[in-house]
Amino acid sequence: MHFLKNIETSQRFLKRDYPKHLHVTCNGKVSHDSCINHCLPYAFNNCNEEHTLECDECNGIFDLFKELQLLLEEKQREELKELQEMLKYYLAHLTRKDYLNSQFNANLLQLDNDGILIVVDYKMRILPKRARETKQDFYAKRGWALHTVLVYSKNQESNELEIQAFDHWSNDNKQDAWFTASSFDAVFTSLDQKPKWVIVMSDNGPHYHCSETMILVSKWAEWYNIECKKWCFLEAGEAKTSIDSHHAQVIILCF
User: Fold this and answer.
1) Nearest of 173, 150, 144, 172 to residue 163 by alpha carbon
2) From-to residues of CATH 3.30.420 in the chain
3) Is the CATH code 3.30.70 the one for domain 111-254?
4) What is the pTM of this model?
5) What is the pLDDT of residues 151-172, one digit of tens each?
């Protein structure tokens, strides 16, 4: 019962309370924390200050593994070490997720009447067939390609946030720089109010994080009279945004 209670307490701390200990300002900057487990500058290898405090909740997780090491046999201890390594990766995931989500909010705060924030993402091929099928059938079909562009802007009259969604489909499910560029072109040419600058957020897939896309982006000022202030590359699976829920709604409508 003692271990079960400690495990439940640790699970609850990781899921609910751990991100609350991470300090990111409203403009997306990280700040020092005296506890080394919560110090984001230290996690980014950019902290020279002392860490004089300890977190009881974090120590409780590490102490739990130490106690289990003393009770288990040699073979089970090796498995426990692997689980402890997995836990470290999970903590890193939670830390990155909280930091990257804060960057989205920080970019929204930069919006004015001249700029827009764009969030882009590809949806893995959509299969116009039954939902339940074998893995062999799944990988045998080509499906459709869906690329979504969410445009966040401020209404010039009410100063309220507005969101527009642009979905671009293709029978060819290839995701490359040229389809990405075509999608941006369709958005920029159809906007009623042309922005002067833009911030883009995406994952670090090869269709975005590549020399071809960056060369095309460098031409936006010439082609559309739009300056790309910043392009934020997020790790795949991190910093879930409203574009994920938008994709879920699109899939439901398709079926």
Assistant:
1) 150
2) 111-254
3) no
4) 0.72
5) 999 887 787 889 999 988 877 7
